[in-house]
Amino acid sequence: MPRSSKKKQLTKRERFVGVVKDFMARRPHRSFRLTKRRDYARSLKLPGYFAFTGSVSKTLWSHKKIFIWLAVLYAALTTMLVGIGSQDTYMTLTNTLKDTSADVFEGNLGQLGQAGLLFLAIGSSGLTAAPTESQQIYIVLAGLLIWLTTIWLLRSVIAGHKVKLRDGLYNAGSPIVATLLVAVVLVAQLIPIALALIGYSAASSSGLLSGGVATMLFWVAAALLAVISMYWITSTFFALIIVTLPGMYPIRALSTAGDMVVGRRLRILLRILWMFGVIIVSSAVILIPVILIAAGLTNVWPVVGNIPIVPTTLMLVSVSAFVWGTSYIYLLYRKVVDDDAKPA
Asked: Which of 163, 261, 274, 281 has CB 3.0 to 4.6 Å from 235, enough for a Cys bridge?
């Protein structure tokens, strides 16, 4: 009699146990237990911080025509759907700062200090009121499309393909639903930091941060909440890249990204924090001179005050920073993948 070729069907419990065992084998860390270094030490050879930052900028600059037009196109699209910062709001901030800081700042240093404070105010407010529900949807969709288009173009040019911007615009949007689901996970992982910020606002208004043990306990709790969010989002940034691969599902992308960062999460997190630092400093280097030039021109020709020079520059800088940050994350992901592919 021929043997049956049918495989034994596993029960739901057996499948669940198999999934758990596979996960435990891939993740060496155990809660409240010391993990031996041999179980988590992993290779991660990366260029230095400045060298890698320069490499990202060089990659974009070598295909500057595509990526500059990408930034301009999405800046124009966002302007049409959402709008740019209000020039009236900017002028109000400028006049208020001049009135309140007249006795604090003096001479050229005073002008520079005022421009710096304006940059901080603009960076925190964006010169816009609270967006409507439809504008919020447009902002999310524009952000996802910029992310997907940048990744598609980078993946193609690094592979040596000759592509045009329209190719990325037409082909990059296919994984938008899967990417949106991973982005929702990222937002959920930021809830601890949001709770810390809400707690800080409440504590400041109630006088809890005036000193003493209560202040110390608050900052310890806030730091722990921030660490939790940063621990989670480190792998989720990579999941946002992985989910753009053909046939990839969100859960699988999150699992794969988690496996990639095991044993080197802190080193990757520091690179991501460095990226945000570079974006903030670069934005200040661009916007502060523009603020000073706009203020000088307004003093000479008051009609210039009606031209939204700073809001327009802010929009272009924001979109360009988003494209550069997306490229940084993608190329960092590629470095990690290449390091894993090297023979041990």
From this structure: 261
